Automatic annotation (TrEMBL):
CDD domains: TPP_TK
Similarity annotation: Belongs to the transketolase family.
Protein keywords: Thiamine pyrophosphate
Residue stretches making up the Transketolase N-terminal domain: 20-266
Protein name (database record): Transketolase
Domain of life from the UniProt record: Bacteria
GO molecular function: magnesium ion binding
Record-linked Pfam families: Transketolase_N (PF00456)
InterPro entries: THDP-binding, Transketolase_N
Length: 273
């Protein structure tokens, strides 16, 4: 069980990652800060507590894998990877620059440690399923994590993949839904309501865990439960706040794909001090 000192360390890492998210999007003049700020707590717990990885050996065959299905939220992905030691923190400031390894959407041909390129929404769970089935046939114990957005799971391919994971009993697959309730054009409920999301996943044969995605104790406990679940995949519905930590970005679609300007950056960094 995670202790208070470990929780504090994770919170400190997440706070620094939030500062990096707003700095790198400001420097680039583009990017997706809102959904990155909502997702970062789960990513920090995952990368620092649960994934069996070797940052110094990113292609280690026995590694666990992560698939960022909501591929536009690379600021969170890169901030977590950098904090974990995959590349120097200074490189974050090359985000979206010409010839950078830190593309606007993750590219496994550019950055070691990115297990799959993504960008087109709805595909990450299928990729995780395929990797998990290959590992099963090869006799590898690796686990496969995928992060989706709640707006993203309006895509039909997600539910085909959900059926597949349940049909094959892929208990080494764990999906994390970053349920911040807001997508590009407004609230998820207004664009295309998902209704009872936990009930939907349960009906598709998944083990469902509902949590506060900014409570790192709950995130850590949910990921532990997912590891212990056998015979079916697990989905963690992580209820979050879009733009978490920056007052003028919270609970608004405005900063879904808008970088902070210099004045906004200064305010954000002060709030994240």
């Amino acid at each position: 069980m995670i202790n208070n000192a470990q929780l504090q360390e994770l919170e400190d890492i997440a706070r620094q990652c939030r500062r990096d998210i707003v700095r790198m999007t400001n420097k680039a003049g583009s990017g997706h800060p809102g959904g990155s700020l909502s997702a970062i707590d789960a990513l920090v717990v995952l990368y620092f507590r649960h994934m069996n990885i070797r940052p110094e050996e990113p292609l280690w065959p026995e590694r666990d894998m992560f698939f960022l299905s909501k591929g536009h939220c690379t600021p969170a992905y890169y901030a977590a990877m950098s904090a974990r030691g995959y590349f120097p923190r200074e490189e974050l400031m090359t985000f979206r620059a010409m010839h950078t390894r830190l593309q606007g959407h993750p590219s496994n041909t550019h950055l070691p440690g990115v297990d799959s390129s993504s960008g087109s929404l709805g595909q990450g769970l299928s990729l995780a399923n395929g990797a998990a089935m290959a590992a099963r046939y090869d006799g590898r114990p690796s686990r496969y994590y995928v992060m989706l957005g709640d707006g993203e799971i309006q895509e039909g391919q997600v539910w085909e993949a959900a059926m597949t994971a349940a049909a094959y009993g892929l208990d080494q697959v764990c999906a994390i839904v970053d349920a911040n309730g807001i997508q590009l054009d407004g609230t998820v409920d207004n664009v295309k309501s998902l209704g009872d999301m936990p009930a939907k996943w349960h009906a598709f044969g998944w083990h469902v865990i509902d949590i506060d995605g900014h409570n790192m104790y709950q995130v850590d406990t949910a990921l532990e439960k997912a590891k212990r679940t056998k015979g079916k995949p697990t989905v963690i519905i992580s209820h979050t706040i879009k733009g978490k930590g920056v007052s003028f970005m919270e609970n608004t679609a405005k900063f879904h794909g808008l970088a902070p300007n210099p004045e906004e950056l200064e305010t954000a960094l002060e709030e994240l001090r």
